[in-house]
Specification:
By secondary structure, the chain is an all-alpha fold. Helix content is 66%, strand content 0%.
Amino acid sequence: MAFTLYALIQTAILFTNAIAVLHEERFLSKIGWGAEQGVGGFGDDPGIKAQLLNLIRSVRTVMRVPLIAVNSVCIVLLLLFG
């Protein structure tokens, strides 16, 4: 497989899909990354764990509908052009 722009875009889509399907109660809480784990005090700098949890929640919230459209376009392109 050649290293193309389409391959990079497809990699980003797959990575975003992987983040979007992570379920907080079924998966993240089992490894200690549940909702109550990343709470910090006011004025405290959030740690890397809290920032990653916020990123995961944001991706799941904001990218749910656009991912459906992007995945559909990607599937159609793969069907048409192989």
